Amino acid sequence: MITEQADLKLLRIFLTIVEAGGFAAAQSDLNLSLSTISSYVTALETRLGFTLCKRGRGGFALTAEGQVVFEEAHRLFKSVAQYETKMRALRDKLSGTLTIGLTDNTITDPAARRIEKTIARFMERAPDVTLNVVTYPPNDLLREVVTDNIQIGICSFPKTVLGLRYIPLYGETHRFYCGSDHPLFTQPDDEIDIDEIRRYRLIGRKSWLGRDLKEFAIARPHATVSDMEAEARLILSGAFLGYLPEHYAKQFVDAGRMRMILPDRLTVKVTFQASLDDTKQPDPITNLFLDMLIADFAGDAA
């Protein structure tokens, strides 16, 4: 019975000889001398207990038993090849669930559109992965990354947390706005200063930790928000002033419902980053998405 690795080697040599059409013809394929090839076939015949082929002046020919051995060996090695292919496919196959966290209202940002490109490329490479996409305000998104509910978070994060890795992706510009019903809406910028703005109600964004109020030197905001839609609603009410991403506010500006105030002075630029827990070994799915994301945003961080 053929069971040992050495037996499989002898079978492979025999298979090559038959497919080449004889001992001499198989020399170049096996890179062996005629005497060595002959000794291998003799060893296989001894192992099996019968003659496999006729060789000599009459030429090379298989015996009936040799024909059976050739056919079975061919099937055996074909099966082994199929097994190796399937095992390789299982090893290389990416499956499971990847949870990506995004912050709200970035879909209108042209700079963020490459996230969609990354998603498309990722799903083409890993079609069996279930992609779970969630949206949170920045503080909540940071918490979800820390607690490992999200594998990769994409956001302008309010602070850095020890153990998290941050990869810069792209920049976002925020301007200061008032709504069409606000007293400042019709007032020219050259008639507006910081003291004038301080007379009105100002919005504080929780994730900015007071940075949006620093310019105005006030103790606390008149309203707080956790996301851009909430801030936009307050500004559109005409009762509040506050910052919005320029790309997000554009729809309201174009409709005549908002205007920028002092854009040369009241401008904040933030950097969007990809963040993940660096204390854990990233799995292949997370690594693949992150590598694609970094490649798609290469050179864009500001």
Automatic annotation (TrEMBL):
One GO molecular-function entry: transcription cis-regulatory region binding
InterPro entries linked to this entry: LysR_HTH_N, LysR_subst-bd, WH-like_DNA-bd_sf, WH_DNA-bd_sf
Protein's name according to its UniProt entry: Transcriptional regulator
Stretches assigned to the HTH lysR-type domain: 7-63
The family this protein is said to belong to: Belongs to the LysR transcriptional regulatory family.
Pfam families: HTH_1 (PF00126), LysR_substrate (PF03466)
SUPFAM superfamilies found in the cross-reference section: Periplasmic binding protein-like II, Winged helix' DNA-binding domain
Keywords in alphabetical order: DNA-binding, Transcription, Transcription regulation
